[in-house]
Give the backbone structure.
Amino acid sequence: MKITAVRATPVNIPYTAAYVFSHGSIRSLTKTVVEVDTDEGVTGLGEIADGDRAADAMKMGEALVGLDIRETTTAERRCLPGIRYTPWGNVAGMTRVFGGIEMALWDARGKIEGVPLHVLLGGAVRTEIALSEYFGFRLPGTSEKGEQTPEEIADYCGRMVDEHGATSFEGKVATVDLDTEVRMIGLIREAIGDRMLKVDANGGWTVQTARHAIARMDDYDIHYYEEPVETYEEMALLRPFTRASFSTHIMDLPRAVELKCPDTMVTNLVEMGGIARTVAFIRACEQFNIGFRFHSGETSVASAAYLQVSAAMEHIREPSQTLFRWYGDDICNEGTPVPKNGAVPVPTGPGLGVTLDPKAMKRCHERYLEEGQFPMTPAGNSGLRTRFSRV
């Protein structure tokens, strides 16, 4: 079970229509797909959710050739510094790169042993993973016209209920004027009935604006406000003004315990350095009664990984995010998992349970070469556009 090579390829996954968030709009995702070859003839798949990190992944992989794929702790020691900060490297970036490689090690092990990842993690506590449908202003795309008014967004959400049995929703706010967004939330509530409704501001409000927004949106039974403001301290200032919960993409469990805010952590599998580190973090969250769920935006490789981890971790009880229905392409033979009745089944194949489609990989890599990457590079790039404005 020894590593013989590590390969990495940047790909772009387009959206059917660009969605708007508090810092601009996104029409494509850039991810780096990792392939770890073994002397067993098996290749493990992983993914780095950090743009084009192919060169970094292959350089890091040189230190792992000859190592047993089960020695993930040894692999981490070889690849990452033992300190949280160093002036000689980007520790956060290195951690994400290693996380993609570590994911591939788990996939290779599962394939060699002939069992899904959730079995390696102790077994499944659920066979379906609950996911929230996404909504927001979307700009016209090549295959969809998107939604440019509150009425169109509410109609979209209603269709997700009628056509797909959607059971929970999450969407972008802090993108247009507050009156428009409050009207949007009210119309969505009418369209979806008593189903779960969460909103995500991506830190786009000040504390004062957030207080006004919360006061007006709370009437529509908001379950979560995700990052209404940027910091834990600012969220704590909002706590007296709502019974709703707060969630964040910033991982600082000791601070969350100290402030009793936010209530839930939302991240991917590479931010903390891979599957083993994420599983340990989820267990720590459980000890302190802090929620955990995954966000969306990866290809079907990392998406399959987070479905597998969600199957094995009882603490992931609420629906994670999903943008799957908006994908315009993907790289695996199994296709993008799309929710039905608010959930998708856990992949049952060995490892992550997915296999690469060579033609799709080539197509998505060529798209990256043509478009460049998201987020925008200093030289300029088409991944991130200017802020959307609607009156």
Summary: Residues 158 and 193 are 9 Å apart (CA to CA). The longest strand covers residues 3-21. The first helix runs from residue 54 to 61. Residues 119-345 form a domain with the TIM Barrel fold (CATH 3.20.20.120).
